[in-house]
Write a structure and sequence with these properties.
With about 350 residues, the protein is an alpha+beta fold. The protein has 2 domains: about 220 residues, Pyruvate-ferredoxin Oxidoreductase, domain 3 (3-Layer(aba) Sandwich); about 80 residues, Alpha-Beta Plaits (2-Layer Sandwich). About 20% of the residues lie in helices and about 25% in strands. It has 9 helices and 14 strands. Helix 1 packs across helix 5, helix 3 packs antiparallel against helix 6 and helix 5 packs antiparallel against helix 6. The radius of gyration is 23 Å and the shape is elongated.
């Protein structure tokens, strides 16, 4: 979206920010961190967390209210909750037209909507050495995968899902707030106004909760030092040229689309997971009847014991957190628990230990 900036007069209020007044609008001329190139953001997410809407809000705010040129588009997996979504935002000064719709391969900022995506190297691929990496996770141990980030990059953690649940909002509102709070050239009031406009017509009941979530995201984030170990920019993830188009950029790479045994649904969970208490389990199999993803692991009962087949646990690689097993369990042996970092890995019982340990 390219917007001609109107002739106007104004005064400098903050370094890098100039308020411009026109006859019928008030907009802000923003000085981007790198005046000689675009500022690029990549949202890494799954369906249902609102990454596409977040990209729309940010680009709309940049074009209509901040005096910038902006472009936004997303790449999807299958269109269902839990599938992979990558959303791209490209910002430039008004005198610098945006003439590309290629995906963001070397981002200034990466925003990760689900911590399970950290396991995939494509999530962090291309991050610049002076870039910013924001990820959604509750306080706790730092995932070892983040050591692969550039040593000089800025790392930010925010409990976006926890805040969203408390405020009855969505993680995208929180992460937009964190993004604005992390970059002074993105005015929080302008981004919040664009977020409000997005929902005021279709979901007016969500405006107040989104506002609270955004404001908390802008302040309740954690800067983490000394995590990254890599030197310089990270290499971009590029697919091999196909069908002879040597210069054609890919339309957005969807890493690990997955199928059958190799599929990994762990990124589909949004903060809760079923946990088995074996002592309470009567191994009736009702949970197995209602599970849509066949993620329950069974084994042989003890010789001469009461049960020939016993439920051993859950293979969380295939569990998307629908909670049907919890809702159907007659004894309360399966309970709904908050997913904390590393909990699924500790409790996981592999369905195919010889194939996927």
């Amino acid at each position: 979206m390219n917007r001609p900036f109107p002739e106007a007069t104004g005064v400098n209020l903050l370094p890098g920010v100039r308020i411009e007044s026109t006859s019928n609008v008030v907009s802000q001329a923003i000085c981007l961190p790198h005046p000689d190139r675009f500022f690029e953001i990549r949202f890494e997410s799954i369906g249902g967390l609102g990454a596409h809407a977040a990209g729309q809000v940010l680009a709309t705010a940049a074009v209509l209210h901040m005096g910038l040129n902006g472009a936004h588009f997303s790449s999807y997996g299958s269109e269902k909750k839990g599938s992979l979504v990558r959303s791209f935002v490209r910002l430039g000064h008004v005198e610098r037209p945006i003439r590309t719709s290629a995906p963001v391969e070397t981002p200034d900022a990466v925003v990760v909507f689900h911590a399970a995506l950290l396991r995939n190297p494509a999530t962090r691929a291309g991050l610049l050495k002076d870039g910013t990496f924001i990820y959604n996770a509750p306080p706790g141990p730092v995932p070892e995968e983040l050591a692969a980030l550039p040593r000089t990059a800025r790392l930010i953690r925010v409990n976006a899902l926890g805040i969203a649940m408390e405020e009855k909002s969505r993680p995208n509102a929180v992460l937009l707030g964190t993004l604005a709070g992390a970059f002074p050239f993105l005015p929080t009031d302008v981004i919040l106004d664009a977020l409000t406009e997005e929902f005021a017509g279709k979901h007016p009941e969500a405006v107040a909760s989104n506002t609270r979530a955004f404001q908390r995201g802008a302040t309740e984030f954690e800067l983490m030092d000394g995590v990254g170990r890599a030197e310089g920019d990270l290499p971009a993830a590029r697919s091999e040229p196909a069908w002879g188009y040597q210069t054609q950029p890919p339309g957005g790479i969807l890493p690990e689309p997955g199928n059958m045994a190799w599929n990994d649904l762990s990124a589909s969970r949004t903060g809760v997971m079923p946990v088995l208490d074996v002592e309470k389990c009567i191994h009736c199999g009702v949970c197995d009847l209602v599970c849509p993803d066949f993620c329950l692991a069974w084994g042989e009962g003890a010789e001469g014991g009461k049960y020939e087949r016993m439920l051993m646990g859950v293979d969380y690689r295939y569990c998307k957190g629908c909670m049907r097993c919890v809702e159907s369990c007659p004894t309360g042996a399966l309970t709904r628990e908050t997913e904390t970092p590393g909990l699924a890995d500790r409790l996981r019982v592999p369905l195919f230990p010889d194939l996927i340990p």
